[in-house]
What does this fold into?
Amino acid sequence: MTAVPSPSPSPVTQALILAGGQATRLRPYTDTRPKAMVEVAGRPIVDYQLEWLAGHGVEHVVVSCGYKADVLREHLAARTEGPETTVLVEDEPLGRGGALRYASSGLRDQDAPYFALNGDVLTWFPLDEMTAHHREKGGLATLALAQFRTTWGIVDVDGEDRIEGFTQSPLLPVWINAGVYLFEPGITPLLPVKGDHESSTFPELAGQGRLTAYRISGFWRGVDTAKDVKEAGEAITAMRQDA
It folds into this structure.
């Protein structure tokens, strides 16, 4: 199927954040709060995300949550800056794809494109450039991709099996799903009511040539473990000192 560029020149002003998981790998941080409320360098993850989205023109964000929803709802209600937020609570776990479809019901403009973010991602890159790339390629959905950084150290070996040195946690020449998407409204009915879009909707769209990649070069970090909280906090603190 041939991709057709989107005719809309207007900016994307709405977004979804998926914040419903129990995040058992982040305990004890998540014993009393959802993953999106875990603090990294002194601020909850969701605050970084909302500030980033607001800085690129997003005016309304739907936050889909489940586990410890009251903690997140209270925090968002107390915010005085950034985009307006609507909280939707899952009555039962829907999976990431089901959560996306459910959260989309809270969007104010059902006929407009929207960003979607996993609630455990910290990143900064120009969303306007991602939007332009998405429209140029004409896909139904664009996935932001981050270069994979291994948690293992790499051993450098020469042709004579002599070890020349070691590189700790280098970036590898492969790309992973960064958990940031730009969706045209037509994708919503293709998302599963319950289940994972990455094993259903995305493979189908890829087979049809309707899925686009956007490689990011800025800061990106998935926060999935206690080690990630520590390392992401150190990276953000270093960036603040260098600014």
